[in-house]
Specification:
Strand order of the largest sheet: 1-2
Number of helices: 7
Order of helices and strands: EEHHHHHHH
Strand content: under 5%
Shape: flat
Distance between the termini: 56 Å
């Protein structure tokens, strides 16, 4: 990763540390203005401490649910090369600490964006969405999840039934993930005029997805118990 990829260039003149208008902050080493996403100061090259950024901004990804996994992996790998600990072995303790903090922040952002549930939560936060939001004012329970919960209880000791149920739940999880993309696209359609109903629709699909993933984990755990060798 080149330095130009670490953030938009700022003025190269130095200055005394202090407040800088806008999103720019002074470099801890030379005082030059540094952009929020920049890993390094464009004036002196010193690595900066990570700023408070959403995971999309931190990894330079578009704020959308349907991300390209390959592009996400490339972005993460590029930042990883720039933050290779060997590059900072001869630096001072502050730069080594900043490099580690940046690497940890980038890894956290990567883990968030590659997981559909965590990615959806991150988008909802950017949309000021509430997972329990319901435009009609009434949060209806998910009948399908309730039915599957009852089926899971009934199939507790039946391996074949648990296998069928696990496959059914997995298919429903895939469908939820597929529907989240268009739901978020509609919610983000007009940033100037947010629509709580559209954001609420995405939030309800996410709640359903979380319920299904919890059921899938429970079904897998019960199946493992039945498959465990008996002593």
């Amino acid at each position: 990763m080149t330095r130009s990829e670490s953030g938009p260039p700022g003025p190269r003149a130095g200055g005394s540390p202090g407040s800088i208008a806008g999103d720019l902050e002074p470099c801890w080493s030379c005082g030059a203005p540094v952009a929020p996403r920049a890993l390094f100061c464009h004036a002196c090259g010193a690595i900066q401490a990570p700023r408070a950024l959403d995971p999309f901004a931190r990894l330079g990804m578009e704020r959308r649910f349907d991300l390209d996994p390959a592009q996400l992996a490339r972005q993460h790998a590029g930042f990883g090369r720039a933050l290779d600990p060997q590059r900072f072995a001869a630096k001072g303790l502050r730069e080594q600490a900043n490099a580690k903090a940046q690497a940890d922040a980038l890894q956290g952002a990567f883990e968030t964006l590659r997981d559909p549930v965590r990615r959806a939560h991150a988008l909802l936060a950017l949309l000021d969405g509430d997972l329990s939001a319901d435009p009609a004012g009434e949060a209806d329970p998910d009948d399908d999840v309730a039915t599957l919960t009852d089926a899971l209880s009934a199939a507790a000791a039946d391996g074949a039934a648990l296998d069928r149920l696990g496959l059914d739940i997995a298919n429903r999880i895939e469908a939820c993930i597929k529907y989240l993309g268009p739901a978020f696209a509609k919610a983000q359609g007009d940033p100037a005029k947010p629509d709580p109903a559209k954001t609420g629709a995405a939030a309800r699909i996410l709640a359903r997805l979380e319920g299904l993933e919890a059921l899938a984990a429970e079904a897998a755990a019960r199946r493992a118990i039945l498959s465990a060798p008996r002593t």
